[in-house]
Specification:
The complex is a heterodimer of chains A (136) and B (154). By secondary structure, chain A is mainly beta. Chain A is built from no helices and ten strands. In chain A, the strands form two sheets. In chain A, strands 1-2-5-6-8 form a five-stranded mixed beta sheet, with no helix packed on it. A four-stranded antiparallel beta sheet of chain A has the order 3-4-10-9, with no helix packed on it. In chain A, strand 3 (35-39) and strand 4 (43-49) form a beta hairpin. The termini of chain A are far apart. Chain B has 154 residues and is mainly beta. Helices cover 0% and strands 34% of the residues of chain B. Chain B has strands at residues 4-5, 49-52, 56-62, 71-76, 79-86, 95-99, 104-111, 122-126, 129-135. A four-stranded antiparallel beta sheet of chain B has the order 2-3-9-8, with no helix packed on it. In chain B, strands 4-5-7 form a three-stranded antiparallel beta sheet, with no helix packed on it. In chain B, strands 1-6 form a two-stranded antiparallel ribbon. Chain B is elongated. The termini of chain B are far apart. The chains are: A mainly beta (136), B mainly beta (154). The interface between A and B is large, with 55 and 56 residues.
Chain lengths: 136, 154
């Protein structure tokens, strides 16, 4: 895995999260992963299906409110196999989201297990919902 | 597909998507060659890619988030069945902003048009990709026929 200083590997991550200071070059033809996104007050969680992706190829970046996910899917078939039925295509994954919440970029963590990428974007303190007690 | 957007439901503002270019999968989704779901109208889940070489048939499905214990792969005669269940729990108190991943139980059966050595079928699950290796029965494998030259007779 690349450990140059542009990679900000979070303690709870097995996936590198890039610092928001690197430029992105154009991406190749790729598939759009299905995602679930939940908001649990303290953080926004993105769960993305990335079946077949190589764990060390997954790149998660957060830059100016835009979360981008990229993953390479290595070829997994023997050259001698003959295609009989093709119901789905296989290729790299790419998807971007604009996150309007105030996120603590330094604390973003990502984890890839069983083909699912989970990204936790903790909200900065001022963005967290606080319950205000009403005096009656 | 279970695709719903929750733009207005977000308490923290819109989660707008940047690229709608790849809205549909690019791969060809051909109907299955010899079978499919008995129900007909239901979607065929999981989608399968099938390959073969001289000795095996290989069936592959994308099942992210599943573990081996969530899956049941079985053979009845030359019919392969994949059953499974995917559970996704949204923690209590959390708000769902987007839900696209399929959940629930599924079952798919396909009839293989050749004899399979049922005792030696194997399956592996790696990073959410299920690969089932189905060895062809000896009778279904190509056999080399020895051709004797005229001079070798007798």
């Amino acid at each position: 895995m690349n450990t140059s200083n542009e990679l900000n590997k979070c303690c709870s991550s097995n996936v590198a999260v890039r610092r928001p200071d690197t430029a992105r070059t154009g991406s190749e033809w790729s598939y759009r992963p299905n995602v679930d996104i939940i908001d649990n007050d303290a953080a926004i969680e993105v769960h993305a299906d990335l079946p077949g992706a190589a764990g060390d190829s997954i790149e998660v970046a957060f830059e100016q409110g835009i979360l981008s996910i990229e993953a390479q899917v290595p070829h997994r078939h023997n050259e001698s196999w003959k295609r009989v039925v093709t119901e789905f295509g296989v290729g790299n994954f790419h998807r971007r989201f604009q996150i309007d919440a105030n996120v603590d970029a330094e604390q973003i963590a990502a984890d890839y297990t069983d083909g699912v990428l989970k990204i936790t974007l903790p909200k900065s303190r001022e963005a967290q919902r606080r319950r205000i007690p009403v005096k009656a | 597909m279970l695709t719903r957007s929750f733009f207005s439901a977000s308490p923290v503002g819109a989660l707008a998507e940047m690229d709608r270019l790849f809205d549909s999968m690019v791969g060809a989704r051909a109907p299955f060659w010899v079978g499919g779901n008995a129900g007909g109208a239901r979607i065929n889940f999981p989608a399968l890619n099938v390959y073969e070489d001289e000795t095996n048939v290989y069936a592959e499905a994308e099942l992210p988030g599943l573990k081996l214990e969530d899956l049941d792969v079985s053979m009845t005669g030359s019919e392969l069945t994949i059953r499974g269940k995917r559970q996704i729990n949204v923690p209590e108190g959390a708000t769902s902003l987007r839900r696209e991943r399929l959940v629930g139980e599924f079952e798919r059966s396909i009839e293989l048009p050749l004899d399979i050595d049922v005792d030696n079928v194997s399956a592996s699950l790696t990073n959410g990709v299920l690969l089932i290796t189905l060895p062809k029965a000896k009778t279904a494998q190509p056999r080399k026929i020895q051709i004797r030259g005229a001079g070798q007779n007798s």
